[in-house]
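Teaching note: in complex prediction, the entire set of molecules is handled at once rather than each chain in isolation. The prompt given to students was simply: 'Predict the structure of this complex.' The entities are:
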Amino acid sequence: EPEVTQTPSHQVTQMGQEVILRCVPISNHLYFYWYRQILGQKVEFLVSFYNNEISEKSEIFDDQFSVERPDGSNFTLKIRSTKLEDSAMYFCASTIGQGGDTQYFGPGTRLTVL
Amino acid sequence: KQEVTQIPAALSVPEGENLVLNCSFTDSAIYNLQWFRQDPGKGLTSLLLIQSSQREQTSGRLNASLDKSSGRSTLYIAASQPGDSATYLCAVVAASGAGSYQLTFGKGTKLSVIP
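The expected output is the structure of the full assembly:
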């Protein structure tokens, strides 16, 4: 069964460093999302992406964040200058169509900022 | 702003019992509602999706209901097993008006099924 994959599974970085989290959505899906979950808290929406541009972003998704689909398969989240409070589990999700469709989640990348 | 609440926060039941998890949401203008399972330190596994026009969906021992007008959903698990132990998350999709269909999540119910 097709699945969303994410790499790395765990990333440790120093505060102020740039990180890139990678996702490979399901191949025929058209809508892509990033969410994050700080330990013990709710899963929160960060950004949605369709047709090579951002559809919507939350207030969490500030200028330190960016997303890109550099080729036909990868979808990346970049954090330019990490802060301690960026430590969280980051999930990528994809869906084949719009609002009525199941969102499929990847296994997540655990980001630890020291 | 949509808020999703799940009660109880934790639940412990003996194996074999039937159980119900509750989810409520503040804005009834939703496209759909999804139930997920999350194992510790892992990703989210989609269990059931209910469209806003539907009243319930079933998959195996799981049955999810939706009452959109009252802003409530329940997940019924029949004949619980130790392997059902996990955190169950409820999430809704409300069209933001910008063509995005992001999920708004509850905090989850942590289920423990005791052998």
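Point out the following to students. The mean pLDDT of chain B is 93. The two ends of chain B are 41 Å apart (CA to CA).
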